[in-house]
Structures are given as C-alpha cells and as structure tokens.
Amino acid sequence: MNIWTVLSMVIVLLILMPNLKILINFFTQTTDNWEHIKEHILPLLLKNTSIIIVATGVLTILIGTSLAWLISAYDFPLKVFFKWGLILPLAIPPYIAAYTYNGILNYTGVIQTTLRNDYGIRVDQKYFDIMNIPGSIFIFTLFLFPYVYTITRAFLANQSSSLIENARLLGRNAFEIFFRVVLPISRGAIIGGASLVLLEVLNDYGVVKYFGVPTFSTAIFQTWFSMGDLNAAIKLSATLMFIVFTILIFEKVLRGRKKYSYTTAKVKPLTPMKLTGWKAWTVFGYSLLIFSLGFFIPFIQLLDWMFLTFEKIASPVFTQLIMNSLLVAFTGAFMIVIFAVIIANFTRMHKSWLSKSASRITILGYSIPGAVIAVGISSVFIDIDNLLFTFYESFGMEASLFLSTSLFMLISAYIIRFLAVGYNSIESGFDKVGNKFTEASRMLGMGMTKTFFKVDVRLIKGAIFSGFILAFIDILKELPLTLILRPFNFDTLSTKAFQYASDEQIHEASLASIIIIVISGIAIYLFHQVLEKEPK
User: Which residues, in sequence order, are CB contacts of 340 under 8 Å at separation 6+?
Assistant: First the structure.
C-alpha cells in the first residue's frame, strides 16, 4: 500500500465520520423533543420542503432549458452579452437576494413609495408580500436557474446541427423540434442541473429563516440552539439525509439508460439561426427580463443602499470581516485542492473497487446540506475533545472544547461540504491529459511521487486553478456552516450581512453583500478565462 492509497483512505474516513455519526445516532434512544417534533412539526417540514423543491425544480427547468436553447439555436440582439450575463445570478447568494427583494417590495421600498408619492396610488401590502413559500420559490428560481442553464447550454453547444435540420426537413416547427428532439436528447443535462438546484434549496438556511418559512434547515437550527437538544437535531439531520438520497436515486431513475450518440465522426456543431422582427425582440425581451430580475435590479438596489450607508458601515471592524472571509475561503479552497488532487491521482492510478468507492464518497459531501454536515462534524469534534481532555491538562491547558470551538472545525466542514467541487474539476483535468506522460516518466526511471510533482501537476495546473476558484466562491458565499461552526466573535461577510438583514437593518447589509458579489463576479470571470485557455 503506497502513500497515495494511505492518504486517500484517511481523507475518505474523515469525510465519512460525521455522516456515519448522524446515521448511527438516528437509531439511538429518542427524546421528548424528538417525539414532539415527529408528531407535530415533521409533517409541516415535509410539506413545505416538498412544495418548495418541486415548484423550484419545475420553474428552473423551464427557464434554464428555454434560455439555453434560445442562446444555442438563435441569434438575436445582445446574444453575446446574455450568453454570459445569464450566469451572473449565481454571484448573488439567495439569502442576499431575499432581503434585497423584500426591501424593494415592502411598504417603504422603492416601488410602493413611488406609487404613493408620485401617483397617489395605495395598494394592499399583501400583493407585495414575498415573505412566504411562493416568495421563497421566486427567489430560488431566479438565482439558481443558471445551474440548469449552464449545463444544458454546454450540452447543446456540442450537438450536431443535422438533428435540427432533419427535423425541419420533415416539416416540424420550432416548438415541435424543441419538445420532440431537444428535450429528449438533453434530458441527462437538464436533470443534472435540476438536481444541483434541489440540493442547493435543501442546503439553504438564509432565505427560509428570513422569510419565516419552517423547513428542515431552520428546524435543525432551532432544535439545536433554542432547545439545546443535539440528539433531536441529529435525528432531523438524518431525516433530511434520507430525503437527499431519495432525490439522488430519483435523479438516476429520471436519467434512465437511454443514451444518444452519433453514427459518424463528422459532427457539425449547431449553427444559430438569425431571428428578425418581433421574434428577435421577443427573445431579447425574455432574456432581458430574466437577467434584470436575477441580477441587474437587486445589484442596482444594493449599490444604492451601499452609498447611503457606506460612511456608517465602513470601518476597521468591517475590514476585519473582509480579512476573515478571505482567510477561511482561501484556506478552505487550498485544502480542498490538495485533498482533491490526492484522491483524483489515486483513483486514476488504481482501477479498483476501492478507488471507485473513494471517488463516490468524495462527492458525497456536496449532496448533503450544510446544516446536516454542521451537526455531524460538531458532534464528532466534541467527542474528540472529550477524549483529549487528559492530553490538554498534561500541557497545562484548560480542559475545554478546544477543537470544537476553533477555526479548524469550520475549515474541516468546508472541506467535507465542497470537496466535490474541487475534485470534479481536477478529475476532468486528469481525464484530458490521460496517463501517457506519467507512464513515459516512470519508464525513464522517475519515481511515482517525483513524476507527480514534475509532470502531472504541471499538466493539470489549469484544472487545479479552476477547482480552487470554484471552491473559493462557494466558501465565500456559504452561510449555514459558518453560522453554526464559526468561533466566538468571528464573523464573515456572509454572516454579517445576514445578521444585519435579520435585525431589519437591510441598508446596512448592502456593503457586505456588494463585496461578496463583486469578489464572486471577479472569480467567475477568472474561471471562464481559464476555461477559454484550456485545450479543447
């Protein structure tokens, strides 16, 4: 057993421990709080969660797929801009979008104020109330549809134009081609994007907490911190894990075994058709509407609030928030890349059931909501601290929960949650370069480890950088894990923005939000620059 195998197994064990802790404790003795939750609250949680994920899933599929098809198949005004502009809603975390839209639509917001002061129109507040389940669905749809859009568009961009041309020759119109040709061949990509959306919805805490919608994530927080019952929180987390696994199984079923391939190596990519007249402007208007609702309107509103409160909020304390955010995001992303490279290299060099299992366990964390991971890893670290009490005392340290109140636990949670992000990027990099250069180096007498650093790492440096950027963005925007596991008096931009919004200081939350969005936007731009330079 070489060093790569040992390191990979250690990493896999670290990923599994919190999840196994939750699953094992699910079958332990129940408490009175859990019995009350199971009888009176769990049905409501299941109902609300089901409504939100089903509605969000359907709407993101409709919007994401339709935009992907229009961008791929047609030319219309500002298409080049919308091609990338429609990804920008991912730079705005849903919890920031939630309080921004509530600030826009509430009684003192710009819409109702303008109607009252400029037009003398007073409207019933209920028509502008989004702090409910439909409002949650609205936010999730607008700011998560790019998952479906980007994956589906990437798939359609590589499709053969002969499929569409043959359908047109057979007399099919645009709608028939879309529903009878495009949707069937894109099913795998669409379902893959939608599954990411649903996992993000289940992971969310900020939107549903701010809107006051009872879901599993809010219930886990309340059970743990309000009731002080970690056991009941673990049981809620295990229930949510079962829901996640059900969704993943359902995804496999929906994908089915149908596969589409070409009978010739000569594949002509899809050539966009130029739209004119009302059709062109209709498609332009649709794209502009989604872009405006998903990015432009909330971003402009946040800028306006930022200018109003900048002098009040900007301070050395705020600078420390930025440094804290960059510290945890950089450290977490750096460790994720290291772990991902170790496991990806192990799985490509060893084709066995052990390597396949390691790769699947690596991506498990991204499928599990942050609140669940927080419960699991916290309980594990508390157990470790209890075992180390004697060790602490022997070094003259106070017998306290040292590890479970440190940044080490938070960084560990980030690694478990987002390791899949870095791993997928690095694995695809290894797939592109193959093993031929590694084998040539070994044949020339260079050892495995030396070959790795001298040859392999240099060949996949673009993939490593991409994985780092994606993990950095996710950690910077992350909220549930950071809220639960951050050390005392340690805040980040995301937690501070959420705290301001929760205290109804919406304007004050804008500066932290803008910085998150700008940093995420720059990182997304760098990511796309790396992709453009990568060999096809």
Answer: 362, 419, 422, 423, 425, 426, 427, 467
- What is the distance between the alpha carbons of residues 435 and 106, in angstroms, rounded to a whole number? 59
Q: Which residue has the tokens 């599994």?
A: 16
Inter-CA distances, 445 with 2, 207, 448, 452, Å: 18, 57, 9, 13
Nearest of 143, 139, 145, 137 to residue 65 by alpha carbon: 145
**pLDDT at residue 181 is higher than 90:** no
End-to-end CA distance of the chain: 35
Confirm if 196 and 150 have CB atoms less than 8 A apart.
Answer: no
More confident residue, 483 or 457: 483
What is the DSSP secondary structure assignment for residue 158, as one 8-state letter? T
528 confidence band (pLDDT: 50, 70, 90): low
Q: Are 290 and 63 in contact (CB under 8 A)?
A: yes
Q: Which of 413, 390, 414 is nearest to 402 (CA)?
A: 390
The stretch 312-325 carries a mean pLDDT of: 87
- Exposure pattern of 84-104 as b/e (b: 16+ CB <10 Å)? ebbbbbbbbbbbbbbbbbbbb
How far apart, in Å, are the Cα atoms of 510 and each of 265, 367, 376, 464? 52, 30, 32, 32
Cβ burial of 28 (10 Å; 0-12, 13-18, 19+) is exposed
Rg (CA), the chain: 25
What is the tens place of the pLDDT at every residue in 35-73? 888 888 889 999 999 999 999 999 999 999 999 989 988
492: left (phi over 0), alpha (psi -120 to 50) or beta: beta
Note the pTM of the prediction, 2 decimals.
0.84
pLDDT for the residue numbered 158: 63
Pair type for strands 273-274 and 74-75: parallel
Cα–Cα distances in Å, from 76 out to 24, 142, 176, 201, 491? 56, 22, 21, 33, 45
Mean pLDDT taken over the chain: 81
